[in-house]
Design a protein that fits this description.
mainly beta, five-stranded mixed β-barrel, about 10% helix, globular
């Protein structure tokens, strides 16, 4: 099967650690969002379903990959930076710009279609993931540092 590359903004990225919420064995996944005309053509030519939920994601596709091989051994998704170095930042935040390599595979159950199986991800512009939703407030309250805080600084 031929590999293809699609580019856009990453949303709901689970490519460093697999998501086990819906599959106890784990599944890697990423939404490639805000597709431009060129990348919509990539999706259409491979048979992927382009979705649009009228939100910040615009036109997008979802790529997935099982976290284990058929023999039960763990599978990893290759994640690289723009210079093809191993990605070491932790997590990929929503809106990060990425290139994703995938292969399309038709399926017949549940009405049929084409699933995009994720091979690798290249992060070209990173928006760091912040799971608490908070950020620095310029000019805001700053507490006094204690000796314990200084020991870990």
């Amino acid at each position: 099967m031929a590999n293809h590359v699609i580019s856009g903004q990453a949303y709901w990225s689970h490519v460093i650690r697999p998501n086990t919420k819906f599959n106890p064995d784990g599944e890697y996944s990423i939404e490639i969002c805000n597709l431009d005309a060129k990348n919509k053509k990539v999706a259409e030519s491979t048979g992927l379903t382009i979705k649009n939920k009228d939100d910040d994601r615009g036109d997008f596709v979802t790529l997935k990959q099982y976290a284990t091989n058929k023999d039960g051994s763990p599978r990893k998704i290759s994640v690289k930076d723009s210079e093809l170095n191993p990605f070491s930042q932790g997590s990929i935040g929503n809106g990060s710009k990425v290139n994703a390599s995938f292969y399309p595979k038709p399926y017949t159950n549940f009405g049929g279609g084409v699933k995009g199986y994720l091979n690798s991800v290249q992060v070209t512009e990173l928006i760091e993931y912040n799971d608490d939703g908070l950020g620095v407030v310029e000019g805001g309250y700053v507490g006094e540092k204690t000796e314990d805080d200084l020991a870990f600084a």
